[in-house]
Amino acid sequence: MSPSTTNIYPGLITDADNTLWDTNCVYADAQRWLLEQSEIKAGAICKDPDRLGFLRRVDQAIAKRHHSGLRYPSHLLLSALVDVLLGRSVEESAGRSLMRIDTSANDITEEFDELLRKAPPLRDGVRAGLDMLLRANVPIVVATEGAADLCKNRLEHWELSRKVQSVVSAAKTPELFLRLSQLLKLTPERCLAVGDQLDRDVAPARAAGLKTAHFPGGFLPSWQSGIDVEPDFTVNSYEQVANLAIDGSTQASNMAT
Predict the structure, then answer these.
(1) Rounded distance, CA 208 to CA 184, Å?
(2) Which residue from 235, 30, 33, 194 is spatially nearest to 119, judged by alpha carbons?
(3) How far apart are CA 246 and CA 240, in angstroms?
(4) CATH number of the domain within which 178 lies
(5) Is the full-model pTM beyond 0.90?
(6) pLDDT tops 90 at residue 70
(7) CB 169, CB 145: distance < 8 Å
(8) What is the band of 152 on the pLDDT scale with cuts at 50, 70, 90?
(9) What would the mean pLDDT of 8-15 be, rounded to a whole number?
(10) Residue 174 carries which DSSP code?
(11) Chain CA centroid to CA 159, Å
């Protein structure tokens, strides 16, 4: 598919998790299950009424320390949760989890990982928005920091594979977004990049000279609260992303510019 010169942004680079589909809801269900297993393993009950918030504080404390960020191995979370339930602080437990490998609960972490692989539901307007982009001859590249095969499987599950040109798995840097704009045979300023995270999606795309759309998801890591990154647009539906790419339509509400 060749980019059309009639569209405002004739090429789209889109994030996948929490942008095309709601990964957050799958993670929330799996994390609640893991907390229950942690309570059994520790012989102690979480007393925080916000059980998911409790787990995610531990989760993010580990992610801040681990070189893979939120993609760290799940046995670390189980280990840290047990420590916190037994009375250690979140920070101490997160640090301790990085220093040891607990193989005694592989059955728990394997089931947790399997729960995380469930196909998440599509986000609002994704199917309609991708159809609009396909009809307008706007090629779409999916950029993910997750596994390419998993992303492709989810596209196939939702019968969206034919709507995208390619899937690229790589760390999101300005250099990646420049390379993807070249893949689309467009200058950066003629590409629109959309994602749910200001630091991982918007910031590197803006640094590369692309136009950016922020599509906030249901999960906001604690470290994003202090990020001073201004997207070009903020949208609340994927149909609004399509409108922006095709004609710059002001139907994209809450626009930053």
Answers:
(1) 14
(2) 30
(3) 10
(4) 3.40.50.1000
(5) no
(6) no
(7) yes
(8) very high
(9) 97
(10) H
(11) 20
